[in-house]
Specification:
By secondary structure, this protein is of the alpha/beta class. 36% of the residues lie in helices and 16% in strands. A six-stranded parallel β-sheet has the order 3-1-4-5-6-7, sandwiched between helices. The chain has a six-stranded parallel β-sheet with strand order 8-11-12-13-14-15. It binds cobalamin. Cobalamin (B12) binds next to α1, β4, β5, α3 and α6.
Length: 456
């Protein structure tokens, strides 16, 4: 009897310093792999390696390797592809980076999948099995999400963070200049059927202590959000997600969020300066009642906030960091991101900075000398290195003892002993990781091979 066709899924890490373990807060179950596993016909054998937590057994026999790519993992994905190519195994890549940079990815992968996998994955496998693969696969339409049911059995035996990742829908209608989501989904939003989400979450209740809806804006469609929250309420789960400030403007929605078990939302405040919000096209943060009132309402509803801020827009100066930090501490934010602006390939921001001649490295994600946290463009109001340093200093101050203790006093962070304990664990982990993330190489620093280009 002939051996079944075998596909190997690989989830790459961003990079690693020789001998150092990968960042713990980034070790969650990778949903793209579970999606691909579910779309793979049963007669195809499969295995999975998570490069973030185990060594890849490159010599294990396989017929095809499928790698998911993001901009920060692209260099590592190309290293992994070279290892397989050296052994004569073809590689297919998909995901955000492959879709937004298909030419570049095509130099490192025998096939590239543009966009979502649902409509094309089975066809690609058929072509490989028949020996007639194409270079590019792209679905003609955005898939109907009723078929997007992940197969999480592929993760068994690994020590991921105890968080269950679930999609309620895909995309966000806003068109912020810097965001890869709008570049990938074209500012569209599709929802999964509510009852299907409820069944998926109910089945995960026992293995996941916390559900993370990975939607970029869970409140993007208030009608759908209301229906979903109502259906989640009887499950008595605890969940977190990402949402826009829209959530804080609707008292009824806030009440339903809380009743359904929502314990926190990551909200992109981005900037305290209206001129920056205008430049980045973040209209949703400029409409309505402002940040102070939004925070007061979220506090009243008991929703913890993971606030994110981006620095490096043209109206930013060193004083912008003080303003954001003071706001975040005053409102007892649970966690916070103080990030420098990143020109992600394929976004309008990348195009603008390139046309203004402000990119320091054109393909910074491929540059051997580039390190995580390095600013790859010339900001208007400060030097690139000053921007990096101020982001780091602000993170250290936010996660320092003084701020942590002040924020611990905030009613939404100390609702009960469990909340307070998790507050200290999460803040401690983020404090620890500031230094571990800084200067992380893209790709495996110990890898000594040669990048081998695709064979066709
Ligand atoms: C959950 C999440 C995380 C989690 C980790 C998830 C995990 N599993 O470990 C956390 C919070 C830790 C995280 C961290 C980071 N993240 Co993140 N994250 C997400 C988020 C919100 C959801 C990802 C997800 O599960 N989606 C659901 C799956 C099913 O969708 P998908 O990945 O798009 O897969 C589909 C297609 O793309 C395609 N596909 C994908 N891979 C492949 C592979 C093949 C072979 C094929 C055929 C098809 C295919 O088919 C799939 C099904 O249709 C996305 C945004 C988003 N909406 O996707 C950002 C996102 C992926 N993250 C992003 C970033 C930048 C980061 C960080 C660098 C942030 C930071 N500075 O710390 C880190 C890096 C961590 C790392 N890579 O190790 C960016 C990537 C941008 C880019 N252009 O590459 C995104 C897009 C957010 C954004 N707004 O820009 N992240």
């Amino acid at each position: 009897m002939s051996r079944p066709f075998h596909v190997t899924f690989v989830h790459p890490c961003i990079g690693r310093r020789p001998g150092q373990a990968y960042l713990r807060t980034w070790q969650m179950e990778p949903l793209p792999v579970a999606m691909l596993a579910a779309l793979t016909p049963p007669e195809v054998a499969r295995s999975f390696h998570d490069d973030r937590m185990e060594a890849i057994p490159f010599d294990a026999p396989t017929d095809l390797v499928a790698i998911s790519t993001e901009v920060y993992t692209a260099r590592r994905a190309y290293q992994i592809a070279s290892e397989y190519r050296r052994r004569g195994v073809p590689v297919v890549m998909g995901g955000f980076h492959a879709s937004l940079m298909p030419e570049e990815t095509g130099r490192h992968a025998e096939s590239v999948v543009l966009g979502e996998a649902e409509e094309v994955w089975a066809e690609l496998l058929d072509d490989y099995r028949a020996g007639t693969p194409r270079k590019r696969y792209a679905a003609a339409t955005r898939p109907d999400l009723t078929r997007s049911l992940p197969d999480r059995s592929i993760f068994s035996g690994r020590r991921y963070l105890p968080v269950g990742l679930v999609e309620a829908g895909r995309g966000c209608r806003h068109a912020c200049e810097f965001c890869s989501i709008q570049a990938f989904y074209g500012s569209t939003r599709r929802n999964r059927p509510v009852q299907q989400i409820v069944r998926e979450v109910a089945a995960m209740k026992d293995r996941s202590r916390l559900i993370f809806f990975v939607d970029d804006n869970i409140v993007a469609d208030p009608g759908f959000a209301g229906e979903l929250l109502e259906a989640l309420t009887p499950l008595r789960i605890r969940w977190v997600s990402q949402g826009s400030l829209q959530a804080a403007r609707d008292p009824d929605l806030l009440e339903r969020l809380r009743a359904s078990g929502c314990e926190g939302l990551l909200i992109g405040f981005e900037s305290m300066a209206p001129d920056n919000l205008r430049q980045m096209g973040k209209a949703v943060n400029r409409d309505g009642s402002g940040f102070e009132e939004a925070m007061a309402r979220l506090k009243h509803a008991g929703i913890r906030v993971y606030g994110t801020f981006v620095f490096g827009y043209d109206h930013d100066t060193p004083a912008s960091f003080e303003a954001a930090l003071a706001f975040a501490i005053r409102h007892g934010m649970y966690l916070c991101g103080f990030n420098h602006l990143v020109p992600m390939p394929g976004t309008p921001l990348y195009q603008r900075l390139a046309s203004e001649g402000r990119l320091l490295h054109e393909a910074w994600w491929l540059d051997e000398a580039y390190r995580y946290n390095q600013v790859p463009f010339r900001p208007a109001g400060m030097a690139p290195e000053e921007l990096r340093r101020l982001c780091l200093d602000t993170r250290r101050r936010f996660y320092g003892w003084n701020s942590t203790l002040r924020r611990a006093m905030h009613p939404s962070n100390r609702q009960d002993l469990r909340f307070l304990t998790w507050f200290f664990i999460m803040n401690g982990l983020h404090r620890l990781e500031i230094g571990l993330r800084d200067g992380l190489p893209l790709g495996d620093g110990a890898w000594r091979g040669q990048l081998l280009e695709a064979t066709r």
